[in-house]
């Protein structure tokens, strides 16, 4: 064999049957081969296990999917390149012309845009309510056959809590699928509820280091099999290296999530006692109007909180710009703390009435707490809010 041929067909390193790496390996390969054409065809017909092409599946992606499914307490999972990718692909896969979708003003912006612009273009209708409007939810589901309900808990940025038991019971009774964007709670929470599909942005707590994007849909194997086929056609596959890095990050997930939750509670307690603060929303705080519901549903309350300063938008800007440890940047759940003032939280696609219902006020700020020492975060907030 000539040298050029040798480097394109390198020697294979095979581990003995009883010899395993402690860290799941990275299969950075687009293609996989079988020994024969018949075995390849049998794999493509779904008659034998194995991998063929990474857009459809890959052992490193599969490793991450199995880990996430097990964290969420479900059979199966399919990952994708981003959280938004998973939401959009799931909505496209599960709806058709004439369907009706129930969604909420407190939803993540791109989820609302996807429903209001893209799905609308394909003739999918929707009703948008506040997640707090229980009577409205009952009415909407009773009035109209509904294909699916998509919601979040806690909501972003105002940390409202969905009554998941109530929602899932009603949806089931009316034959609607439930899709819970569980990004803020994380894949270790809410598994006890009768949710059809959990959606996650892995960019947040799962990866947790602000350097990789990803998304996951988790549910029963039958539904995931259906989604996997559609996702493969829509083409937003995750790269194996991203999956490997997220798998690596999951080893510290619980330590990070709990440390960040603990710091967030300390920050929330500090802000609740601050004279310039009008309102504070953190589900772990006993003053939160839905604290009892949050306690019943969750074991850890997460790293996101929002509060309102008395003097409105300019005071919110002053605080955001005065903070030294908190970067004015999007995302959440990473090692570094972040702040978003109302100017960056505004939902421009909502009507004035819907904006009001969503709970974001001119003086609102959202904090995402990282892994810094909480005493430093409190000192930073104190100096940035000293002149309010
Ligand atoms: C960030 C986020 C998403 C989108 O995830 P990306 O990975 O940024 O595409 C979806 N839902 C919620 C609740 C989020 O916070």
Q: Could you describe the 3D structure shown?
A:
Helices cover about 40% and strands about 15% of the residues. It is of the alpha/beta class. The strands form two sheets. Strands 1-7-6-5-4-2-3 form a seven-stranded mixed beta sheet, sandwiched between helices. Helix 5 links the parallel strand 2 and strand 3. The longest helix is centred in the last third of the chain and has 20 residues, at about 255-270. It is globular. The protein starts with a helix and ends with a helix. The mean pLDDT is about 95. It binds pyridoxal-5'-phosphate (PLP). The site of pyridoxal-5'-phosphate (PLP) has 14 residues, from helix 4.
Brief write-up:
The chain is an alpha/beta fold and 388 residues long. Helices cover 41% and strands 15% of the residues.
Mean of pLDDT: 96
Number of helices: 15
The oligomeric state is single chain
**What's the gyration radius in Å?**
23 Å
Amount of beta strand: 5-15%
Which ligands appear in the coordinates? pyridoxal-5'-phosphate
Strand segment count: 12
Distance between the termini: 76 Å
Low-confidence runs (pLDDT<50, min 5 residues)?
none
Q: Report the principal-axis shape.
A: globular
Largest sheet: 7 strands, mixed
In percent, how helical is the residue content? Answer: 40-55%
Strand order of the largest sheet: 1-7-6-5-4-2-3
Please state the structural category. alpha/beta
**What string, H for helix and E for strand, traces the elements in order?**
HHHEHEHEHEHEEEHHHEHEHEEHHEH
